[in-house]
Amino acid sequence: QVQLVESGGGLVQAGGSLRLSCAASGRTSSLNFMGWFRQAPGKEREIVATINWSGSRAYAADSVKGRFIISRDNAKNTVYLQMNSLKPEDTAVYYCAADSGYGSGLTPGQYAYWGQGTQVTVSS
Asked: What is the DSSP string of 11-29?
């Protein structure tokens, strides 16, 4: 089993920055990729960014490309999401996810492990 714990959410003004962290514990050696998703009220959960365990491949959704950066620190078993130039439409609950499979990592169904979520609110 793998446990994921997110932190770093909060309230920020438009144009500001936040950094989310996701600490993994348990059988982390089995993981192949990790991702960040978000879900706004009344909307489906959507991909934000993914990264493979070695950090050699990363993906960012078009809506956040150039503003958000996903990275990882394997020594700490932690993945980060640096969010810059935040917009009100980025407001959502952000979830960290991980899996040991070899899919694209772009859809929620491909992930076996999920964190509890952290709220990000961007005021205009």
From this structure: EEETT--EEEEEEEEESGG
Contact by Cβ (8 Å): 66, 49: no
What's the whole-number mean pLDDT along residues 21-49? 94
Give pLDDT tens digits for 52-97.
Answer: 888 888 999 999 999 999 999 989 999 999 999 999 999 999 999 9
Rg (CA), the chain: 13
Do 68 and 85 form a contact (C-beta atoms < 8 A)? no
CB of 92 closer than 8 Å to CB of 20: no
Strand runs labelled E in the chain: 2-7, 10-13, 18-26, 33-39, 46-52, 58-60, 68-73, 78-83, 92-99, 113-114, 118-123
* Burial of residue 29 (number of CB atoms within 10 Å: 0-12, 13-18, 19+): exposed
